[in-house]
Amino acid sequence: MTEQRRVPFNDLARGMTRDRDALLDATAAVVDSGYAVLGAQHAAFERELAAYLRAGDAVGVANGTDALELAIKAVMPQGRSVVLTAGNAGAYTSTATVRAGYTPRYADVDPQTLCLTVATVSDALTDAVGVVVVTHLYGYLGDAAALRTLCDERGVALVEDCAQAIGAVRPDGHASTFGHAGTFSFYPTKNLGAIGDGGAVVPASPEIAARVRQLRQYGWDGKYNAALTGGTNSRLDELQAAFLRIRLPLVDGFNQRRRDIIARYRDATTGLDPELLTVLPADGVEHAAHLAIARSSRRDNVRAQLAGAGIPTDIHFPLPDWEQPAFARFAPQQDLPSTTTACVEILSLPLFPELTDGEVETVSAAIRSLT
Ligand SMILES: Cc1ncc(COP(=O)(O)O)c(C=O)c1O
Q1: Atom 8 of ligand 1, residue of closest alpha carbon
Q2: 63 CB near ligand 1 (under 6 Å)
Q3: DSSP annotation string for 244-297
Q4: Is the CB of 46 under 6 A from ligand 1?
Q5: Which of 58, 76, 167, 181 sits at a 20 to 30 Å CA gap from 249?
Q6: Ligand 1 atom 7: the closest Cα is on which residue?
Q7: Statement: residue 1 has pLDDT above 50
Q8: Which SUPFAM superfamilies did the record assign (predicted)?
Q9: 14-247 carries CATH number 3.50.50.60
Q10: 67: pLDDT confidence band, cut at 50, 70 and 90?
């Protein structure tokens, strides 16, 4: 009997092996520099990230959840206390909101893109809302400019959670440059991944940048003088900054490879009942294709068939935020049908740039064989 070859859902070792020499050289450079935090690597990464995004500035922080927390703190208007967001984006914003001392509330998502839009946000904007956090979920940069206009009209700040969307770009700008702040995670599986944790805030003004820089270091305005309430320790270390500098120039190529893989999975669904499996599109540079998302009204059965063919799947994310015990007290009064339906239908297929063409074909063949 031939053994069923398994396609990995992700395999970080492949990228580390590819980048091994550069990563070791960068490690030596950091060790030789004598700097561990806030040194030359960190300063260069902040500059290079801002240049890549065509943004005015970028502020390194310890991870993507801290980036959200500090961004929310830095832009929340005086007297407001509610953060409006989507409930299908993994609860990172809910976590950051509660840590910032505010209250999360939820708007429904668009049934097609599964992201917040002007249409879904405008009905949910009450006077208490101070910040809207739009997650560019799965890598898709929607009409963030229109969301910004709506927020400006209502005196609300917009934060873009770009943890899954680095490199997503429209003619009027990169993801992270439409809001009052954009946030990134460099968790190892992200499209730009560190070898550890990392994150960044892209501020829309020098004032917001200064607040985030203070908040990431104890609220200090100078050494040992905490001038701003709500400060914390959230620094991106020199090693991670050095590693990220190696990979930043590779992101656009990785994103294209991710889109190409999703296109092949979509081709494989030709002729299938869309209720059985529909792979969401990730076409064009406005989509960073972080995850290969499919929908199925028979999800458990489809996952079992794929598992039988050696294809692991996952669910991003299985529960709306308010169905998780930590956030149950924020459950919305009304039904948010597109959010709840998505949570029971979505599944994620293997997707990372180092997947081989043979593995992509193995997944595609398993999709074609679904019944
Ligand atoms: C959409 C989204 N936002 C925020 C985060 C939080 O990032 P981190 O894990 O670096 O805290 C993640 C990933 O983990 C994410 O996928």
Answers
A1: 64
A2: yes
A3: HHHHGGGHHHHHHHHHHHHHHHHHHTTTS-TTT-EEPP--STTB---SEEEE-T
A4: no
A5: 181
A6: 64
A7: no
A8: PLP-dependent transferases
A9: no
A10: very high
